[in-house]
Amino acid sequence: MSCGCGSVSKPALTGIVLTLTLYCLHVFALKSHLLTRHGGGLGTAAKDAVIKYKTLYFDQKIDHFGFLEDGTFKQRYLVNEEHWLQGGGAILFYTGNEGDVTWFCNNTGFMWDIAEELGAMLVFAEHRYYGESLPFGKDSYSDPKHLNYLTSEQALADFAVLIKELKQTVPGAQNSPVIAIGGSYGGMLSAWMRMKYPNIVVGALAASAPIWQFPDMVPCGDFYKIVTQDFSRSGLNCDANIKKSWKAIDNITATDDGLQWLTKGLQFVFPPEEDRRGGLQPLPRWPIQVVCKHIGFNPSTVSDHQLLVGISEAVGVYYNYTGNTPCLNTSSTATGNLGFIGWYYQACTEMVMPMCTDGIQDMFEPQEWNFKAFSDECQALFGVRPRANWAETVYGGLDIHSHSNIVFSNGALDPWSGGGVTRNISDTVVAIVIPDGAHHLDLRFNNEYDPHSVLSARAQEVEFFKLWIKQAKKKL
């Protein structure tokens, strides 16, 4: 789609700066009351990796928990049996996130890297209401009535039913132990899968899974504190200048001349229609450090114009690292094929994840968590109101001591780790903290730039898999 360099508003510029800070950490958030988690980039596949899979469909019930709605829909799932040891080899089952499952399949290289070692079948299951798995086809998002079955509980039931079907119908799979794997929201689902269906999966790897990012579990400001710490460590004055940029935007956009200067000089793109593309934008290694090189000014002497020029160059690291784009198309993002609307609906029902900023312990403008305002926005958008404490009720909140065989991995650089499990809960519910890790970095393909801590984490995870497989086979 062609696009032109259009006018830019103060809210749009503010959003660009916020987006810059979050995308450099492989996460996405909105600067609004819908300030809630969204799946981030998993990274590109290794150059020599060849991804091959069969695309299959399974008839799922639209409603697993009621009896009046007896309709079905076709759930898409992807399968690779290249290295599977038929007759008992493990099944690594990816619990699909809020997006097209092929995207996660192509970017979850860890599963592909270890399939041969474990003799495993790989299965990537698509989450209902995303990709091609639409319970009501084109009407799935038409109104709250059709969206009513978009819940994590229904998705987990889909996964459980699909696994039982595979074990019953695929020759040799009856005794195959199944391990749930997921990252971000998918990691939350993999952990909950083991908690809710321990008869279906023998263990779970929950990578960067913020299962505690819910009301009254962790402070609402932790996410943005970690973001700020990351920028502070990545370049001289980096966080201070981002913090200063909010006021600079106010000052510049206060006049028509300032707005014209921003539009002409910074060349942001705001196309009339959404222009999304799949895959991931080319990025340098440690992009946050490259970003910070463009804004390493002395905060006490830098002018507003100079600072925003630096911010523009920093934004270009994400949107135009190759230098081939004449203007910055800020609607084209690596996560463009994720299901934004679907996730917003989930955030407006059961995935209520409070976030806030104070402008003191973080580099952002102050914004309190206001549940009433959040609820009102959800009512206006979808005609529903959130259940603030439902996730704690249904999944146990902080009390997960009674569960077993779950590995929670978190990168110390990942702001979502603030809502994750970063300490051992028991001998069998354990945490792996990756000092040099970003958002579910351990689920990427191995590559030459991986920090040692990431390689170590992957090795530990494989050892846990082997242990769970051994335990499962002893019970046969």
TrEMBL record:
Membrane-spanning segments: 12-30
Keyword field contains Lyase: no
Keywords linked to the UniProt accession: Glycoprotein, Hydrolase, Membrane, Protease, Signal, Transmembrane, Transmembrane helix
InterPro entries assigned to the protein according to its UniProt record, in alphabetical order: AB_hydrolase_fold, Peptidase_S28
GO BP annotations listed: proteolysis
Superkingdom assignment: Eukaryota
A molecular function GO annotation: peptidase activity
Presence of the UniProt keyword Phosphoprotein in the record: no
Family as reported in the entry's similarity comment: Belongs to the peptidase S28 family.
UniProt cross-references to PANTHER family, sorted A to Z: LYSOSOMAL PRO-X CARBOXYPEPTIDASE, PROTEASE S28 PRO-X CARBOXYPEPTIDASE-RELATED
Designated name of the protein: Lysosomal Pro-X carboxypeptidase
Organism in which the protein naturally occurs: Umbra pygmaea (Eastern mudminnow)
